[in-house]
C-alpha cells in the first residue's frame, strides 16, 4: 500500500464567507458547517468557535479531536464505514490541514471529562494547546437514548472535520510524508536481516462511552485483527471513547498514531515493521483471556521478534496489557509496553492495577493523578457545569480566585498511552 | 541565612555505654556528641547542631510513646530546620529507632529528616518514605563516608534545593514517582527501548515491576489425625528469664524448647516481644502460641501428635535476611524430625 | 464458558429483567467486598470488577457479574478481585464519590453491565432469586 499525507501548513484560522485556504490561512464558513450538520434530524443546534494557542481560553468537556483532511487521489474520503461509504483505505493522496484540529464538545453525561487550556500551565499538559482548534458544540434533540446521543455527536464531529477538510483540496503542501509498505513477504525479502516488529494497539471496547470503531465496526465485536498501518493513518479507526480524557486515543491521534509513525520511521533501517494488531479490551475475564491468547498467537504467526504494546485506559485494561506481555515474553518475543500509571497525588502508590514480572521494558507516559493548577480562563468554550465536576473532585479543588487544581486525568491527551505526548515518570 | 540542626544518636554513638545502656531513657545534650560533631563540622558556618538527643535503642523500641513525646518536646524547644538521626549502619534496633524519629518528625512535625542505613537494616522499609536515608556501609567503619554524603544532601535540603536521582546522590529511592517532561515522546522512547533489547544493550524500564517473594506451598496433609504438628512462633514467647537472651526486637537468633508433657505454656513462659502490650501474653502465653489448643486437638484425635520441641523468635524489626535464615534452619530441623506441618503464629 | 450469572450490584436502575440480581445495600466498595466473599466461596468472577478509566472509579454505583453456581476458588479470580479492591481504595482515597452525577453513572453502569452480559452470553437459571 502507498499512502501520501500532504501537509498544508496552516498558520491561522478565521471565520469568513467561504471555506478555503489561502496563503496558509484557513477560512471557515460557520453557517455552511452549521447548515450541513443540522441536516441530521437528531441535531438540535450547532455552535462553532475558534480557539488559538496562547489565548486564555478553556475548552471543556472535550469529546473528540479530529484532523481535517481531504483525499485528493484515491478512494475513501471522510471516514468510510461511518460518514461515507465503505472503501479500502490505506492508499492514495491525502491533503492534510496541518496544525488545525476539530474539537467536539457536548457531553452525553454530566461526568464527562476533558479539558484543553490554550495558554498557561494547562497548555503544557495537552498536545492540543498547540493546534488551531475549531470547536464544534453539538447539541442533540431531547429524548434521545444514550447510544443515539453518542452516535449523533460522534458522527457530527467527523462530518465537521470532513467539511473543513475540503478547504485543503487545491492547496499546496509544504511537506509530503510517504508511507509505502508492501505485503509482509515482499518486505521481509527486502530486509531479511532486520528484526520483525508488530505493534499491538489495545482499544477500549466495553460499551457506551467506552468504544472504538474500525471501518465503523464496534471494536467490542471483533477478535484481535491484523491491519495495515496505512489504514489507520488513513482514517480507518475512530474513537468512541468519552471517558479517560488523559489517555483516550482521540480520532486525531489515530490518524496520527505516533507509535505507528515512529515504527514506520525505522522500517527498512533498524526494523521490519510487519503491521498493526488491533486488540479489544473487553469486560469479561473470559473475553480478556481470549483476546490476549489470540493477540499473542497472531504475533507468533507473524513470526515477530519484538512487539510494542500500547494501552487505552486505566484499571481493568492493565490486566490485558500484562497478560499479553507475559504470553509474548514466554514465547521469546521481546516486548515494550506503553502505559500510564496512577501513583497517587504524592507519586507513592503502586502505579499499575496489576503486575507481572515479565514486564521488564515499560514506558510510562505519566501519573494520571499528578495534580496541576489551572488559572482562571478569560473565555470558556463549553459548559460551566463541567468545570464544577472537575472542581468537585475533592475539597479545596476550586480556589477563590477561580483557579483550580485538577488531576492530569482530566486533561486531553496528557498521558497518551500510544506515546503521543512526551511525559515520563522518574523515581526519586 | 543560618540553620539549626537537631541530632539523634543511640547510647553507643552518644558515648554513654554499650548494650548495658540500651535501656536508657532519652536525654538532651546541648553539646554536639559523637557523629553530631563530625556532621556539624562538615556543614560549615551557616549550620549549627544545636543539640544531641541520646536514647537507648531498647528504650525507644519498648517505650515508643514516651520516646516520641521526648522528641516532640525537644524539637519544640530547639526549633530545628532539620533533624539528623544515626547513621545506624546495620544495627537493627538503632535503625528502627531512627525510623521512629523520622515518623514523628517528618509526618507530624513536618520537619525534614535525614539518616543513614545499610541496605538490610530493618528500619529502612518504614523510614525511606519519610526521611532521606543515605546508603551506608554495614558498620561504623563507613562513618566518615556516610557523614560526608549526609552533609552534602542536608545542605541541599536546608536550602530547599531539589535532590538529584537517588542513585546519583547516594540515598535510597523513596518510591516517589514524579511526572516530568521528556525531550522525546513516549512512542519514540518505546521504539528505542525495543531496539536496545534487540541489540542486547542496557536499558532502564520507566516502570519497574514489584518483585514478590513467592513460596510454593507444600502439599496438603492427607490424614490430619495421623500428622505430627510443630508449634512455631515469632511472637517472642520464651521460657521465664529468657535463658538464651533472644532480643525483643531485631532478633539475631531463635530458640528451641522442650514442651513434651506440657498441656500449656502458662506459668513457665512469657513474652519478650517489644512490639505489643505484654499483659495478656504474660498471663497466658498460649494466646500467642496456642499449645493448649493443640493438646486439646491431640486428645480429641483431630491431630496425631504435637512435636516435642517448640520454636520461637521475635518478629518485630527482624531483618528479612535473618528471617529467611531462621525459616530455613528451623524448617530443616522439622523436616528431619518427620514433622508433617507447622503452626506458625505471628503478631 | 457459558454458565448462569448473578449480577452483584448496588445500582438502583438495574432491574430483574436482566436476570438474577443480588442487591448490595451499600457503596461501590461494598459491592467489591461482596464479590470478593462470593469468589472465596467458589463463585466464578465473570466480569472484571473495576472499569476501564479513573472516572468510573468515582461512580457511586457498580455492577459485577459473578457465576451463579459454586465450584472452586480459582487463583486468578481471587487475585483479580483483591487487586481491584486495592486499586479502588488507592485511587479513591482522596476523592469524593461523585453523587452530583449519580443518575448518569447509574445509566452508564447499566449500559456497561448490558454489554458485559452480551459478551458473556445470556444463560439463566430457572428460578430468579433475590438475596441480601
Strand adjacency order, main sheet of chain C: 2-1-4-3
The assigned structural class of chain B equals: alpha/beta
- The helicity of chain B comes to 25-40%
Q: What separation lies between the terminal Cα atoms of chain C?
A: 27 Å
What is the strand content of chain B? Answer: 15-25%
Rg of chain B to the nearest angstrom? 25 Å
Query: Which spans of chain B of ≥5 residues are poorly predicted at pLDDT below 50?
Result: none
How many separate structural domains of chain B? 2
Greatest contact between two chains? A-B, 55 and 37 residues
Question: What is the percentage of strand-forming residues of chain C?
Answer: 5-15%
What is the count of helical runs of chain C? 3
* Morphology call of chain C: globular
The CATH fourth-level homologous superfamily of the largest domain in chain B: Response regulator
Please estimate the helix content of chain C: 25-40%
Helix and strand content put the structural class of chain C at: alpha+beta
Secondary-structure element string of chain B:
EEHEHHEHEHEHHEHEEEEHHEHE
Mean pLDDT of chain C: 88
N to C succession of SSEs of chain C: EEHEEHH
What Rg of chain C, in angstroms, do the CA atoms define? 14 Å
Oligomeric description of these chains: heterotrimer
Amino acid at each position: 500500500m502507498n499512502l501520501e499525507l500532504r501537509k498544508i501548513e496552516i498558520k491561522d484560522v478565521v471565520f469568513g464567507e467561504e471555506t478555503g485556504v489561502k496563503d496558509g490561512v484557513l477560512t471557515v464558513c460557520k453557517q455552511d458547517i452549521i447548515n450541513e450538520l443540522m441536516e441530521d434530524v437528531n441535531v438540535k443546534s450547532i455552535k462553532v468557535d475558534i480557539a488559538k494557542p496562547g489565548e486564555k481560553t478553556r475548552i471543556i468537556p472535550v469529546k473528540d479531536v479530529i484532523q481535517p483532511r481531504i483525499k485528493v487521489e484515491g478512494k475513501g474520503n471522510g471516514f468510510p464505514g461511518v460518514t461515507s461509504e465503505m472503501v479500502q483505505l490505506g492508499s492514495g493522496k491525502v491533503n492534510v490541514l496541518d496544525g488545525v484540529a476539530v474539537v467536539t464538545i457536548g457531553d452525553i453525561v454530566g461526568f464527562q471529562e476533558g479539558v484543553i487550556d490554550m495558554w498557561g500551565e494547562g497548555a503544557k499538559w495537552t498536545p492540543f494547546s498547540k493546534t488551531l482548534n475549531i470547536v464544534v458544540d453539538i447539541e442533540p434533540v431531547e429524548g434521545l437514548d444514550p447510544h443515539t446521543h453518542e452516535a449523533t455527536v460522534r458522527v457530527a464531529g467527523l462530518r465537521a472535520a470532513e467539511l473543513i477538510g475540503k478547504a485543503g483540496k487545491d492547496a499546496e503542501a509544504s511537506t509530503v510524508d510517504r508511507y509505502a509498505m508492501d505485503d509482509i513477504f515482499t518486505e521481509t525479502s527486502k530486509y531479511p536481516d532486520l528484526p520483525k516488529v508488530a505493534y499491538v494497539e489495545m482499544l477500549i471496547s466495553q460499551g457506551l462511552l467506552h468504544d472504538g470503531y474500525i471501518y465503523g465496526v464496534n471494536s467490542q465485536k471483533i477478535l484481535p485483527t491484523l491491519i495495515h498501518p496505512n489504514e489507520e493513518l488513513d482514517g480507518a479507526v475512530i474513537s468512541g471513547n468519552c471517558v479517560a480524557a488523559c489517555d483516550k486515543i482521540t480520532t486525531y491521534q489515530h490518524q496520527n498514531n505516533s507509535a505507528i509513525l515512529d515504527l514506520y520511521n525505522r522500517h527498512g533501517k533498524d526494523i521490519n515493521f510487519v503491521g498493526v494488531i488491533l486488540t479489544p479490551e473487553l469486560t469479561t475475564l473470559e473475553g480478556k483471556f481470549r483476546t490476549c491468547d489470540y493477540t499473542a498467537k497472531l504475533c507468533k504467526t507473524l513470526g515477530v521478534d519484538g512487539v510494542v504494546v500500547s494501552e487505552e485506559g486505566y484499571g481493568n485494561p492493565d490486566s490485558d496489557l500484562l497478560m499479553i506481555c507475559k504470553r509474548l515474553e514466554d514465547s521469546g518475543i521481546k516486548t515494550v509496553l506503553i502505559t500510564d500509571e496512577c501513583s497517587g497525588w504524592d507519586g507513592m502508590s503502586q502505579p499499575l492495577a496489576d503486575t507481572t514480572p515479565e514486564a521488564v521494558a515499560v514506558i510510562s507516559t505519566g501519573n494520571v493523578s499528578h495534580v496541576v493548577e489551572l488559572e482562571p480562563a478569560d473565555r470558556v468554550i463549553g459548559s460551566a457545569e463541567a468545570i464544577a465536576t472537575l472542581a468537585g473532585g475533592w475539597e479545596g479543588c476550586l480556589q477563590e480566585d477561580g483557579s483550580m487544581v485538577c488531576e492530569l486525568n482530566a486533561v486531553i491527551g496528557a498521558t497518551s498511552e500510544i506515546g503521543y505526548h512526551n511525559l515520563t515518570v522518574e523515581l526519586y | 541565612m543560618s540553620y539549626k540542626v537537631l541530632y539523634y544518636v543511640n547510647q553507643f554513638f552518644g558515648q554513654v555505654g554499650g548494650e548495658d545502656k540500651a535501656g536508657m531513657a532519652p536525654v538532651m545534650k546541648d553539646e554536639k556528641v559523637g557523629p553530631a560533631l563530625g556532621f556539624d563540622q562538615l556543614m560549615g558556618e551557616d549550620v549549627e547542631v544545636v543539640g544531641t538527643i541520646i536514647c537507648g535503642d531498647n528504650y525507644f523500641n519498648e517505650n515508643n510513646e514516651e520516646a516520641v513525646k521526648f522528641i516532640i518536646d525537644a524539637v519544640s524547644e530547639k526549633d530545628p530546620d532539620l533533624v539528623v538521626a544515626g547513621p545506624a549502619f546495620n544495627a537493627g534496633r538503632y535503625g528502627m529507632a531512627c525510623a521512629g524519629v523520622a515518623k514523628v518528625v517528618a509526618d507530624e512535625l513536618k520537619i525534614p529528616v535525614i539518616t543513614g542505613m545499610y541496605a538490610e537494616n530493618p528500619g529502612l522499609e518504614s523510614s525511606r518514605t519519610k526521611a532521606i536515608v543515605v546508603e551506608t556501609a554495614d558498620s561504623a567503619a563507613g562513618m566518615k563516608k556516610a557523614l560526608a554524603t549526609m552533609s552534602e544532601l542536608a545542605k541541599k535540603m536546608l536550602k530547599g534545593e531539589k535532590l538529584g536521582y537517588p542513585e546519583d546522590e547516594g540515598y535510597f529511592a523513596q518510591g516517589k514517582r514524579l511526572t516530568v517532561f521528556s525531550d522525546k515522546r513516549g512512542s519514540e522512547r518505546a521504539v528505542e527501548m525495543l531496539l536496545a533489547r534487540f541489540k542486547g544493550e542496557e536499558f532502564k524500564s520507566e516502570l519497574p515491576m514489584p518483585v514478590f517473594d513467592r513460596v510454593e506451598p507444600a502439599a496438603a496433609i492427607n490424614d490430619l489425625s495421623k500428622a505430627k504438628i510443630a508449634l512455631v512462633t515469632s511472637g517472642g514467647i520464651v521460657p521465664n528469664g529468657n535463658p538464651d537472651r533472644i532480643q525483643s526486637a531485631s532478633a539475631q537468633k531463635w530458640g528451641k524448647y522442650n514442651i513434651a508433657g506440657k498441656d500449656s505454656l502458662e506459668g513457665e513462659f512469657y513474652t519478650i516481644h517489644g512490639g505489643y502490650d505484654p499483659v495478656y501474653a504474660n498471663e497466658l502465653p498460649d494466646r500467642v502460641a496456642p499449645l493448649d489448643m493443640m493438646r486439646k486437638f491431640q486428645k480429641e484425635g483431630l491431630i496425631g501428635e504435637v512435636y516435642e520441641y517448640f520454636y520461637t523468635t521475635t518478629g518485630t524489626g527482624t531483618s528479612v535476611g535473618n528471617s529467611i535464615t531462621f525459616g530455613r534452619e528451623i524448617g530443616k530441623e522439622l523436616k528431619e524430625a518427620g514433622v508433617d506441618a507447622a503452626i506458625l503464629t505471628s503478631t | 464458558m457459558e454458565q448462569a450469572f448473578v449480577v452483584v450490584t448496588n445500582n438502583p436502575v438495574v432491574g430483574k429483567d436482566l436476570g438474577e440480581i443480588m442487591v448490595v445495600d451499600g457503596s461501590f466498595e461494598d459491592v467489591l467486598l461482596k464479590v470478593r466473599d462470593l469468589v472465596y466461596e467458589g463463585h466464578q468472577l465473570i466480569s472484571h470488577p473495576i472499569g476501564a478509566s479513573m472516572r468510573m472509579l468515582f461512580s457511586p454505583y457498580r455492577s459485577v457479574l459473578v457465576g451463579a453456581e459454586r465450584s472452586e476458588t480459582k487463583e486468578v479470580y481471587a487475585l483479580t478481585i483483591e487487586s481491584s479492591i486495592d486499586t479502588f481504595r488507592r485511587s479513591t482515597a482522596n476523592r469524593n464519590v461523585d453523587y452530583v452525577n449519580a443518575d448518569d453513572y447509574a445509566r452508564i453502569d447499566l449500559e456497561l453491565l448490558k454489554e458485559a452480559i452480551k459478551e458473556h452470553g445470556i444463560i439463566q437459571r430457572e428460578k430468579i432469586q433475590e438475596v441480601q
